Amino acid sequence: MNKLIGLFAISLLLTLSIGTAQSRLKVATLHPLVTDVARQVAGQHAEVVQLIDPHADPHHFQPTPKSLLRAKGARLYLASGKNLETYLGKLRSTLGSSSKVVEVGRTIPSQKISGRDSMFVCCPNHSHGSIDPHWWHRVSNMQKAARVIAKEYAMADPTNAAAYKANAAAYSKRLSALHSWIKREVSRIPRKNRVLSTAHAAFGYFCKEYGFKALPVMGLTAQQKTSATYQAQAITEIRKNGVKAVFPELRANPKSLQIISKEAGIKLGGTLIADGSPSYEKMMRSNVTKIVAALAN
What is the pTM of this model? Predict the structure, then answer.
């Protein structure tokens, strides 16, 4: 008798767990950092399926039929927005009315790429006068993103709306601590040294938030080779602006940057992450630690 009761209890638990899994909100993500915040807000109440590799370059990513099959049943597709994912129109047509595509960065205040920086943008889609898509480099923008996602979750899954809101608030609190830490760390850098020279124009939001002048010094893509004339122009800019170090980026051409730093007689800083990382907080802490190490003295 006890054995039968035990078997019945196990069967009931399995049935309930299957029902719970089937009823959970399913979400697909199209940007590594959006994946991170999506999971922070979801907690245990939603399943987040990442369609892009955590370290992939979102500028050159497009979902494949195979990845879309993994996302089957997703009610929300979370994109970064600001014209970063050029395939969204096609994706919406493919999904039809079965799913909603949300551009998380859509309502976050934008910065535009200047004429000076247009030579050094991340990819050809982002040139002079267009919107800088790298909104996540300002911590307050990621806090806004958490609220946007919590609102979308709540509309899709009203039963767990309070939990999503609480998760977003808890994550935002952690990000406030991160912001305070960044300000303390940056304060160690003399103001005259606060020129952030990177490969591409990807850190504009960070620079505006934390009081740096942005000075990108390389070309459009990681594959692009720079000419001797181009390198000479970059060296002139570096010397004119009193740059103390130049920072490589993941997927940027390291050889050209090494030549530029050597010829300019400045340090080559630690490699920064501009786009893809499985953890937003770790990415920001890593970037800031390397920036401070190179520019504080």
Answer: 0.85
